[in-house]
Amino acid sequence: MSDTGEQPNLREAVPFLGVTDMQASARFYTEGLGFAMPLHWSPGGELRWCRVERDGVGLMLQQFHQRPAGRLGEGVTVCLMCADALALYHEFTARGVVCAEPFVGNGLWVVDLVDPDGYRLEFESPTDVPEETRYTDWANTS
Fold first, then answer.
1. pLDDT tens-digit profile of 68-97?
2. Do the beta carbons of residue 62 and residue 15 sit within 8 Å?
3. Confidence (pTM)
4. Which of 26, 29, 103, 128 minimizes the number of CB atoms within 10 Å of its CB?
């Protein structure tokens, strides 16, 4: 609530990602990362836009009408705060999603991956494991 007792006006931020292959991106987010697709726009039966959601977190994807010049996703990172990033790491890799080795940064386990268009996604969860610890080093000592 605001200082005046009114309900807050802003409710969420939903990153809107332009994609080059809508079918591949939709599969990556739904089949690979376990997101649901509650909303979509499919003119003429062709998926052109969708909102994907998981645990109350949403992203929007839309096929480019005209692909912009340059590398897509360059400089864009979407950080998704979660309860257990390592559980997601195991879930994602079991589904064939390529993830970088998790590490601890800023008091968080970080699971880093890149979507089909080069957008970087970081799934992060709090930990008391020492900074810069790599998952394999931690797993071998636990």
1. 787 878 888 999 999 999 999 999 999 999
2. no
3. 0.89
4. 128
